[in-house]
Amino acid sequence: MPTATWAALxxxxxxxxxxxxxxxxxxxxxxxxxxxxxxxFGEVQVQLHAPFGAYRGxxxxxxxxxxxxxLPPGWRVLASTARCRHALVGGEGVYAVQFHPEVDxxxxxxxxxxHLAFDLAGCTPDYRFDLDAYVARCVAWMRxxxxxxxxxxxxxxxxxxxxxxxxxxxAYGERLxxxxxxxxxxxxxxxxxVRGWFGDEGVSYLDAAEAFYRAVEAIPYTGPAPEGEARxxxxxxxxxxxxxxxxxxQQARQRGRTPVALVQGTNYADIIESVTHLxxxxxxGGLPExxxxxxxxxxxxxxxxxxxxxxxxxxxxxEIVHRQPSPGPxxxxxxxxxxxxAKTRALRQATRILEELVRKHYxxxxxxxxxxxxxxLAPLPSCGLMGDDRVYGYAWVIRGVSTRxxxxxxxxxxxxxxxxxxxxxxxxxxxxxxxxxxTRFVRVFVEVTGKPPSTTEPH
Length: 459
Description:
Layout: H1 6-10, E1 15-18, H2 20-28, E2 32-48, E3 58-70, E4 76-80, E5 88-91, E6 94-97, H3 109-120, H4 131-145, E7 150-154, H5 159-172, E8 176-182, H6 190-198, E9 203-207, H7 209-217, H8 226-254, E10 259-263, H9 268-275, E11 294-296, H10 304-313, H11 318-321, H12 341-361, H13 366-369, E12 372-373, E13 377-386, E14 389-398, E15 400-402, E16 413-414, H14 419-432, E17 441-446
Parallel strand pairs: 1-6, 7-8, 7-10, 8-9, 10-11, 14-17
Antiparallel strand pairs: 2-3, 2-4, 4-5, 5-6, 12-15, 13-14, 15-16
Helix pairs in contact: 4-5, 5-10, 12-14
C-alpha cells in the first residue's frame, strides 16, 4: 500500500488507529515504530497533556510490545503513560491511541470515542438496542436461512444457549429439537437444574460423559511447558467442539431425523477471540472446517450484557438471566493437565461449593455486584498438616473476575473477595474435597491478575 497523505485521509473524515492500528498509521504517515523499552500489559495510568473533549485520562488498558517512537510530521502528543510517551497522539483529523479506549476497564474510554465520533466527525448518536425489534428481525432471519428441515440446538444451563433456544422456538416451532448433553465436564447438579427450568417438552437429555471422557483422555498431553500446554488445551477445545457436533447429529439420526442446521448460542466475544487466534472457542475455532449441517448463530453480534437483557425480555427466570458463565468445554479447561475424569469429580465439587458461597456472600446478580467465577484450578503440589501428619496434596487456585456494564470479557479485572468469603472457601475446599484416590487439598490461593495479561479462563 502506498504511503497515505493527509489530504487523502481527510477525505474519509476523522480516522482513529488503536494499538496496532495506531502504529500502522504512524508508519504510513512518516513516523517510526520500534520495540518498546518496557512493554505494557494490563491497567496503567494515562496523563492528559492537552484537552480532548470530555476525556480526562485515568486508568487505561495497554497490551503492546511495540510503540510509536517517532511521530509523523504534524502530529503532537496529547497523552502519555509513565512508560509510553505516545499514548494518544495525532492531529488534523487523524489520531492514534496506543491503549484500548473501547474496552470496559479503560476509564473514560467512552468519552474519548464520543469526542472523536460526535464532536470531531459529526456523527449522530442514534443507536439503541431495541429488544422487540431485535427479536422480530432475528426470528425472520432464522426462518430465512433455514426455511425447511429439522433443526438441532445444543441446550446448556447458560444464558447464551437459553436465549438461542427461545428465539429458535419462535423461528422453527416443531421443527426444532433441543438436546442437553451431559459431557461429564458440567458443574455438579447442572443437568437437574436445566431439566427443572425447561422440562422434557421438546428437549432431550443425553448422558454422553463416558464418550467425552474417552475422546479427551485420548489426546496426548504435551505439557507442562507453556508451548506444549497451549497446544494441548487447543486440542481439548477442538476435540470437544467436534465431538459435541457429532453427538447432536448422531442423536438426531437415531431418532429418525436428518438435521439441516445446528443453532448455537455463540456471542460476539467468542467470535472476536477465535478469529483473532487469541483462543479457539469450542463453538467457533473448535468446529470442524467442513460441517454436514449449517450453523445458525442468532447472538453472534451481541455481547454478554446484551444477551442478558434479551434473556430478561424473553421471560427467562432470573437464575438463568444472571447465571454464572461457564465455557462450552466446561471444567475441562479449568483443570491442570492432563484432563482426566478422576480430576473432574473434585473440580465439580469445588465449583459447587464456590458458587454456593458466591450466592451467600454476593446475593445480587453476579455480573453486577459479585465475582464471576472462572476457576478453581489446582496445579500445585503442596505440603500441609492435617491431624498429626504431614500431608502432601494439592492447592486450589480460585479465579474470580469483575466485569463492567458491557460484560464483554475482552478485558476483566481480578475480583477482590471479602475476608469472610475467603475464610469459608478455604475451610470448605480443604475439608470437603478430595481426589478419588484420597489425595487431599491443603492450600487455597487466589489469582489477582486481570486480562490482559492473563486470560479470563485458565486455559
